[in-house]
Design brief:
Pfam families: His_Phos_1 (PF00300)
Protein name: Histidine phosphatase family protein
Oligomer: single chain
Organism: Frankia nepalensis
Strand content: 5-15%
Structural class: alpha/beta
CATH architecture: 3-Layer(aba) Sandwich
GO molecular function, one term: phosphatase activity
Number of helices: 5
Order of helices and strands: EHEHEHHEHEE
């Protein structure tokens, strides 16, 4: 599972599922570095979220293996009530009564798609593509929260977490490694672009 690269977003909008948010110049470079990192793997398919930033990140990876970029809507960014707004998580939100209903339950979370639903669709997608190409690698290009939620589900950790502690850098690679019998052996993680690209607090990830 690859997180997309940095997005051109000078207005700091929480873009969520909004269309047309593309990679920045740095994001394009990050995608190419990750493509180089994955170039020696036996990749059978490159599959991406339908959102532009994921498609652009997938493109050089697919090109390196002479594959098309396939689309799976289950890899899309999570739903979010604050989509399209400039947004900063801070205690000031709690002083606005209009936000109380939205922020009532951080375990769900009440402001967006439940973690359980994110994990379910991501793991179903991963299993389907794994089973379609046994013994080979499949690259799924998605977004920070879906990738991180899938990783926590695979590791049987609670899905509720602190966003500032996600280990899911821009254009990073989170790998589920399975045995021939489809038993999960381990989860690996790599940052081809280095830890400075973490972007854990970036909006719309």
């Amino acid at each position: 599972m690859v997180r997309h690269g940095e997005v051109f977003n000078p207005e700091k909008i929480l873009y969520g599922r909004l269309p047309n948010y593309r990679l920045s110049d740095a994001g394009q470079r990050q995608a190419k570095v990750t493509a180089e990192f994955l170039a020696e793997f036996d990749v059978a398919a490159v599959v991406a979220s339908p959102l532009l930033r994921a498609q652009q990140t997938a493109a050089p990876i697919a090109a390196a293996h002479r594959l098309p970029v396939l689309v799976d809507h289950r890899l899309i960014e999570s739903r979010n009530y604050f989509e399209g707004r400039t947004f900063e998580a801070s205690p000031r939100l709690l002083r606005d009564p209009k936000m109380w209903a939205v922020l009532r339950n951080p375990l769900r979370p009440s402001w967006g798609e439940p973690y359980t639903e994110i994990a379910e669709r991501m793991l179903r997608a991963a299993a389907d593509w794994r089973d379609a190409h046994p013994g080979r690698h499949v690259v799924l290009v998605s977004h920070q929260l879906p990738v991180w939620t899938a990783r926590r589900a695979l590791q049987r950790e609670r899905l509720f977490h602190r966003p500032d502690r996600r280990q899911c850098a821009l254009a990073s690679v989170t790998s589920a490694v399975y045995s021939a019998g489809d038993a999960l052996l381990r989860v690996d993680y790599a940052e081809p672009n280095g830890p400075t690209a973490s972007g854990a607090g970036s909006v719309g990830a």
